[in-house]
Each structure stands twice: as C-alpha cells, then as structure tokens.
Amino acid sequence: MPGMPELMRIVSAVADVRREPSHKAELVSQAIQGDAVTPLKAENEWTLVRMDDGYIGWIRDWHLATWTTVQADSFAAAATHRIKANHALVFLSPGESPVTELVVGTRLVAGERSTRGLVAVRLADDRTGFVARSSLEPLRKRRPNPERLAKTGLAFLGIPYLWGGTTPNGFDCSGLIQRIFRLNGVLLPRDSDQQALFGAERPNPAPAELVPGHLLFFGKARDSITHVGLVLPDRTFLHSYGQVTVNSVDPSHPRYSRRLAEIWQLTRDPFRKATSTRRSKPVRSQ
Fold it and tell me: Which of 19, 33, 252, 286 has the greatest number of CB atoms lying within 10 Å of its CB?
C-alpha cells in the first residue's frame, strides 16, 4: 500500500494478531519479538499485516516498529543466540529488576562474557540488557527429526489452551504444532486444515504402528479437519486439548481418547513431499 513501510518488526515479547482491528476481535495468531511482518494498511491505531506464514491479521501499533529489508537482514546476520527457555527475563543490568520477558525462539545478539550468570544481549527492538546464560542457545541450522520434535514439544506440557495462541503464553492445537516445527527449522501453515495438506499422506495405521514425527488430523470428515497432534516416540501423541497434553488412539492405553480416536481422519508424514492436491474447506482449527 502506498505510504506503508516496507516491513515492520515486532517489538513486544508477544503480539496478538486479531481478525479485526479491535481488542474484542477474535485472536487468530501471535508473533514474537523480532518477527518481520509486511504491513498492508493502517486503521486508527491498528495495522493489517501479512506474517511469514502467509496469515493476515491486525496488530495494535504499540507492538510494531518500522523496519526495512536491509535492517532485517542485518539483524538476522548479527543474531547469535535465541531463547531456549519457555520464558526468559531481561534485566537492564545485573542485580536490577527485569524490564521485559521473552519467549522461546526469540532471536538476539549475545556477548561472550557472563556476569553473575547473565549475558549482555541486544534485542531486535535495539534495547540492550542481560539474560541468564542458561536461557540461551546458539543459533544454528536445525533439521527436524522425531526425537528433536518430541523434546521440543514435551517442554510445553501443561501450558493452557488458548484459541489463536502460538507461544508458551498459551497454544491452540495448530499453534503448538507450528511452533514445534518452527523451532526446528520448518515453517508449517498456521491452521490444522492447512497443515493437513503438508507432507505426504499415509494410510492410518494400527495404533501400535504409528510413526514418531508423523501428524494426526482429526475432524468430523476428511475435508473438515479441526485438530492436530504430533506422534511421539512411544506412539502416543502430543496436542493442545485444554492444555498441552499427551493422549493415545490405542484403546488399551491408559491415555486413550475415545472421542479423538473416533474422529481420526488423516495421518501425514511431514518429512515427505505432498503427492496430493486435495483441498480442505476453510474450517478454523482449535
């Protein structure tokens, strides 16, 4: 749109993305500090943006600052670490009160030296501070495998369900799966019906023959997918269902969910390319 910045960056720890420009509107997704978004239009104190997964929604202006491709590329090149803890406090200086909190996956520039276990950092919003070294991990290329996906996901156990949530502040089912894969270097679509088109479809196996790392999709019909879970190494599955939890489609398992087993529609291998052009109806995921 003429007059709009080339890019904008998220400057809050977590920014809510809403269907309409109102705090009362449906929460459809979230972004974290340092994410780049493309502004489409402005209305009052809200900006309509396109996110890197193609999702479009409204963000309140106080979560945003102008960015350029050059600035975004420069920060990406300079960033050395990311937050590995679900939540990490940022201190203005050692011994002082925290000034903000970041969530897992947030990229930053970290120094080499520690002071009282704290490392000097520069954030994507250009603020500087100190973060516990134990909350950081180096940035590196990540190739997902079932064990890494399971380890990432199990760190979210017990986090409450939040419609539209994609962070440790709260997850919906597809937001959980997207965040797990994003933290392992793969960007999945946002909603479960969109994720049900990702990768290669596999015939639904017997519960004991589920393949770790595969995705299970649930709904009233194959073209009305509304829920998704990740198969774990023990053939149970991780999902957000009231909270991030583990269930099974095996009737003999103590965590068996009859309700979900009865509406299990699809199984997909996210490590293989899709071979189908099937389209699903635009049903909003849980």
Answer: 33
